[in-house]
Amino acid sequence: MKKLLLFIALTIFGLGLNAQNVGDVTTIDYDGYSLKFEITSVEPAECEVSDYTDSPVDVTIPSTVTISGTEFAVTSIGDWAFDGCESLTSIEIPNSVTSIGYGAFYSCSSLASITFGDNSQLTSIGDYAFCDCSSLTSIEIPNSVTSIGEGAFSYCSSLASITFGDNSQLTSIGEGAFSYCSSLTSIEIPNSVTSIG
After folding, report:
1. Pairing of the two strands 64-67 and 58-60
2. Whole-number pLDDT of residue 197
3. Can you list the pairs that 8-17 forms with residues at least 24 positions away whose Cβ atoms lie under 8 Å?
4. Does residue 19 carry a pLDDT above 90?
5. Three-class SS state of 136
6. Alpha carbon 167 to chain centroid, angstroms
7. Among candidates 156, 148, 152, 154, which has minimal Cα distance to 172?
8. Phi (first) and psi of residue 101, to 5 degrees
9. Number of other CB atoms surrounding residue 43 within 10 Å
10. How far apart are CA 139 and CA 91, in angstroms?
């Protein structure tokens, strides 16, 4: 009986070592840089890109990552995740990502290319998400996006073209979302928009 209890205790303890919890952060190395992923949900297994290290240049966000043997869907890019990353020139955002957080790419001064998946599920672009991305010249907003936050693209001085799809689901644009975009001469707002800040 004692052996059985000891076995059960050791098994539970062993499982506890591999348990994942909301808020746990894992660093994964890529070519020349690392990305940090924070668990946001255990069931379903979801996480967000929360930070970076070194000097990433061309970044492809993965749609899933494996943490302690469990596959997690990457569903968001967290607040300030790439804030001030001056080396970043391009970012590919997979279909799995549904939200881009507050100031996620704030002052990424070399960011010139943002690519979304053909079946993007992105619904929200947070406040100041791409503020002061001075090298960004154009962006195509996925049809799935329903909200663009306050100052989301403000101070993008080279931004000359913003395109929305024919089936855009966009309903709200935050205050000053495109303010101080000195190269932007016109923008065609989708008919679906009901609120402009």
Report:
1. unpaired
2. 84
3. none
4. no
5. coil
6. 22
7. 148
8. -80, 180
9. 5
10. 12
The number of C-alpha atoms within 13 Å of 45 and in the hemisphere containing its C-beta is 13
3-state secondary structure of 72: strand
Cβ(74)–Cβ(94) below 8 Å: yes
Average pLDDT estimate for 42-54: 97
Say if residue 126's pLDDT is above 90: yes
Distance CA 112, CA 115 (A): 10
* pLDDT digit string, tens, across residues 64-107: 999 999 999 999 999 999 999 999 999 999 999 999 999 999 99
Pick from 114, 122, 62, 64: nearest CA to 90:
114
- Tokens (6 digits) for 113: 């290319």
Tell me the whole-structure pTM to 2 decimals.
0.89
- Of 67, 135, 71, 129, the residue nearest 101 (C-alpha): 129
Q: What is the mean pLDDT of the segment spanning 30-39?
A: 96
Length of the chain: 197
What is the number of other CB atoms lying within 10 angstroms of the CB of residue 115? 13
Q: Which single residue is written with the structure tokens 């016109």?
A: 186
